[in-house]
Amino acid sequence: MTAQTTMSAAPINQRAATRAQGIRRFKWTVLTPFLALMIFILGPALLLQGYFSFFSFSIFDAGDDTSFLSYFRASQWVGLDLWADALTDSKFGFAIVRSLMFAVGVTVGCFIIGFALALLMYRPFRGQGFYYIFFILPMLTVPIVIAYTGEMILYQNGPLNDILSRITGLRIEAQFLYKQEIALTTIGFMEIWNWTPFSFIIMMAGLASLPKEPQEAAQILGANRFQIFFEVQLPLLRPVILLALILRFLESMAEFPKTWGLLQGGPGSATETIPVYIFINAWQYFDISYAAVLSYVVLILMVAIVMSAIWLLRREKKNLDAMYDAKPEEG
Amino acid sequence: MAMTKSQRRMSFSAFRYLVLTFWLCIVAFPIFWMVSTSFKPDKEWFAWPPVYISENATMMNYLVVWADVSEYATNEDGDLETYTQSLQRPWEALGNSALISVIATTLSVLFGAVLAYGVSRYQILSEGRMFQLLMLRMVPPIVLVAPISIWYSALGLLDSITGLVMLYFLTTLPYAVWMSKSFIDEVPREMEQAAEILGASRARTIWEVVLPLVRSGLVATFLFILILTWSEYLLALLLSKTAVVTLPVELSKYQGSTEGRVYGRQAALSVGITLPLIVVGMIIRKHLARGFSFGMVRR
User: Fold this and answer.
1) A184 and A95, same structural domain?
2) Out of A142, A254, A316, whose CB is closest to B277?
3) Mutate to test the interface with A, among B46, B296, B299 (most CBs of A within 10 A)
4) Model-level pTM?
């Protein structure tokens, strides 16, 4: 203790310097293996993707020779031809629109149901734990299992048609999955079933963490329930709501097991979303180059979406932190 | 006629139970149907009206799928037919799934927690970098699978456990870091400082002060990521062919089977895939909420 108090300025600086050095050493010890692995796997993948987007190559071109280098020998320079193809490919355009519509629908569906359930449940009541356990179950089931179980339920002679028949008194034989007009919507409902718990859990956490004082203050000032909800609770929940929406939107853009596992893009091309369309090009037509170009277009699109999403999230987080840090002075 | 306050409360309560019970039915029905189908004999799989709870419940589906028992049944012509699916190897797939997801998850959480500790206490990554890390998860994997499979085939990593583990590690790391950071952030720094003043070393402080406080959070993170890797389908489908088959891919083989749909078998396998996850989920349900909010919820 005495040694510390009598310490002059210089050794303190020195100690700060060694501390900073230690932190730097710790940082790079941790980050190096991670960055190395990322560069080792993703680096070559991105380079290959770039190469094949300018050099046309399909697995058929390689013939019997399936060695790595034969891919390069069999590829042919085509310049920007494939890029031009991709940007004028109407099927690809439809796939993008389909994916966006699917993702928006699923995100909104999950959010509305999840938020409504959370609003009904966040205050303690008898049976809360019981309902909570059941409501998170769908998230714990494997997506591909949901797909196949969904098929059993939606089957022409399946229980859903049976229940509808009993309610209406008619014999209903709807083909929910094999009608072009509704196939994607049906998959959307499965996705909503699967991921509503995610929105539900996030919104439960958000609602439970809201400070009580502003609500009580509003109540004293004579605000009714709706005013409190829209003008006090909702603004405080904005960051969480944004998080729930963004994560869900991005994950449903990438949805694959249900669309592919059940319908492989069909009937017709009704469920050809972005992932399915890329998959078909790469693994059914074996057109590595075209798939690479499509992937790049999607990558650029997604990075743009993700960057704006991150910008939004960071802004909200900053506002939230500022609000909470300013609170002691207000109170 | 205006309702009194207690009447209003009563009717709200009734409304709440009605809505919640309705959603409960929607949530529970598919799971019920999966379990119920797994016990149905083959004649009831496609029956109209559908059979909800079989009166002739049988273990046959489980025996055929999991114990490789051959089942002999007579078809309409009275001939004996075999229903064995000799191509399926569910136990091997179960082993692969367990091995891959446990290794990848352990690496991801160990590494993620150390990184998260560094970020939480020493800001070794700026907030911007942390969000960039999240991008790893947010870009759909399909856009890179084709070149990765070419690169893997050059390295000989195609169809190998190592190859899948490396990719699962990379794609789950963002969640591991963000989730464990939200738990570590909650540990007051004063406790660590107190331990240090009392003369404990850095390692001992982390081991004896921080770790016990975040243990349950880390377990939740571990199990959540285990769920993600256990049910992963796309990468497993495309980067493994024959040698390393995981359970979701194994299940999808039934869909393409030449003998037509075999709902009972599918259901029996599905139950086997889902059961471990439900058990795991029940253990972590209390911690899920905290980990998911990624610091967007303050308490």
Assistant:
1) yes
2) A142
3) B296
4) 0.87
* CATH number (domain holding residue A120): 1.10.3720.10
Total number of domains constituting chain A: 2
Last residue of a domain, one of A38, A53, A77: A77
pLDDT digits (tens, 9 = 90+) for A167-176: 888 888 888 8
Residue A16 belongs to domain spanning: 2-77
pLDDT of B12 reads 86
ipTM: 0.86
A197: nearest CA in chain B? B27
**Per-residue model confidence (pLDDT) at position B2:** 62
Mean pLDDT computed over every residue of chain A: 85
A1: how many CB neighbours lie within 10 A of its CB? 5
Do A313 and A258 lie in a common domain?
Answer: yes
Identify the residue among A1, A122, A137 best suited for mutation to test binding to B, counting B beta carbons within 10 A and taking the highest. Answer: A137
Token pair for B14: 């009734």
Does residue A130 lie in a domain region? Answer: yes
Could you say which residues of chain B have pLDDT below 50? 80, 84-86
B99 and B238 part of one domain:
yes
Residues in chain A: 331
Same domain, B44 and B127: no
pLDDT at position B158: 86
Enumerate residues 82 to 111 of chain B having a beta carbon within 8 A of any beta carbon in chain A: 111
Instruction: Please tell me the total number of residues recorded for chain B in this structure.
Output: 299
Asked if B67 and B116 sit in the same domain, the reply is: no
Domain region containing B236: 90-292
Decide: A256 and A276 in contact? Cβ < 8 Å. Answer: yes
CB contact under 8 A, A142 and B273: yes
